[in-house]
Amino acid sequence: MVSRVQRGAIAEWFWTIDRVFLVAFLLLIGTGFMLSFSASPPEAARLGLPSFFFVKRHAVFLVPTIATLVGASFLSPRQVRRSALVILAIAIALMVAALFFGVEVKGSRRWVSVLGLSIQPSEFMKPAFIVICAWLFSEHGRHREVPGNLFAIILLAIVAALLVAEPDLGQTLLTSMVWGGMFFLAGISWIWIFGLLGLSAGGLALAYSSFTHVQERVDRFMTGQGDTYQVDTAREAIVRGHWFGTGPGEGVVKRILPDSHTDFVFSVGAEEFGIIFCAVLVLLFAFIVFRGFNHAKRERDDFTRLAVCGLSLQFGLQSMINICVNLRLMPAKGMTLPFISYGGSSMVAVAVTAGFLLALTRRRPESRSRERGFIRSMVPLPAE
């Protein structure tokens, strides 16, 4: 056990980290590994691979995931900004490279091969993009002569253009929504709000009319006609699970559910462990998001407040989109469930998000000193 009187780096980290936050993230990681035993074997069988092929790979991914989560949580706010800048620059460069040299999967070029590993750069772009935009918004708030808002808009345009070119409209929508939420918290005027809402509506309409697969998914969702096999099967798995599920390994619908270990792992969890298990999982995601918002509410530094809100919002919206697709409340979209779905890039990138959140919500000694100094200044000195 680490003593409070110790002053080493690990002791300082242990007593300043939000340990409840950390445990919540580790619970999600453990739940994802547990569900991989249920969701992965059917997919491996369909591909002619050993039953536990994806389970073993998931276990391997846990090592860099946990290492990234813990390592990033040691950073100071300044180090978070610098790390985010480096990650963002590399991610954007790899996203450009993916358009020309990337592996094409289902008509999209989102992956690049680095040292024999397949990486999706856009996953790492998201947390870094949020941190850098939070810094730009905060700098504009402190120094009006700094065009931070303009730079943030330009950065959003660059990122959105690369995502649309892949194409990955789901990530484009997620990134834009988080950016808009941060811009609103930064003190945006009503003129900007209505302007951005109109621009967003126009962008959605343009995407619907320009991309055939987007139009087909929206039409299938609205009318229920066409190829709805995936979402229908996912809903069937959820219904079959009832309240308490069929039991670990006893799921039947999961054997015919495509992408059961990635996009539709939530449905597999519902079939084998029940609706109550899924409700608890949703509450865990909600707890993380609202705890992040609560930290941000108490934060006086604009950069930290905006970054924590943005990272929490991204974590929550990505979770919500995946779950809503499984429940057929949204058109089908290939988006992973954070820390639950299989995928190396996704797991490590979400660990970056979680690590940044833990780093920015740590209790800083200098913050406590400022608070004590402020309290002393408010207490009148005794008369001599």
TrEMBL record:
Q: Which reaction does it catalyse?
A: [GlcNAc-(1->4)-Mur2Ac(oyl-L-Ala-gamma-D-Glu-L-Lys-D-Ala-D-Ala)](n)-di-trans,octa-cis-undecaprenyl diphosphate + beta-D-GlcNAc-(1->4)-Mur2Ac(oyl-L-Ala-gamma-D-Glu-L-Lys-D-Ala-D-Ala)-di-trans,octa-cis-undecaprenyl diphosphate = [GlcNAc-(1->4)-Mur2Ac(oyl-L-Ala-gamma-D-Glu-L-Lys-D-Ala-D-Ala)](n+1)-di-trans,octa-cis-undecaprenyl diphosphate + di-trans,octa-cis-undecaprenyl diphosphate + H(+)
Listed InterPro entries: FtsW, FtsW/RodA
A GO CC annotation given for this chain: cell division site
The UniProt record lists the keyword Membrane: yes
Query: Do you know which Pfam families this protein is assigned to?
Result: FTSW_RODA_SPOVE
> EC number(s)?
2.4.99.28
Compartment(s) of residence: Cell membrane
Q: What is its main location?
A: membrane
Extract one GO molecular function annotation from the record. Answer: peptidoglycan glycosyltransferase activity
Q: Which UniProt keywords apply?
A: Cell cycle, Cell division, Cell membrane, Cell shape, Cell wall biogenesis/degradation, Glycosyltransferase, Membrane, Peptidoglycan synthesis, Transferase, Transmembrane, Transmembrane helix
GO BP annotations of the record are: cell division; cell wall organization; peptidoglycan biosynthetic process; regulation of cell shape
User: Pathway, per UniProt?
Assistant: Cell wall biogenesis; peptidoglycan biosynthesis
Q: Where are the bilayer-spanning segments?
A: 20-39, 59-77, 84-103, 146-165, 177-208, 273-294, 306-328, 340-360
- According to its UniProt record, this protein's enzyme class is transferase
Topological category with respect to the lipid bilayer = Multi-pass membrane protein
User: What is the top-level taxon of the source organism?
Assistant: Bacteria
What does UniProt give as the signal peptide span?
none
Q: Record's family? A: Belongs to the SEDS family. FtsW subfamily.
Name of the featured protein: Probable peptidoglycan glycosyltransferase FtsW
What is the scientific name of the source organism? Pararhizobium mangrovi
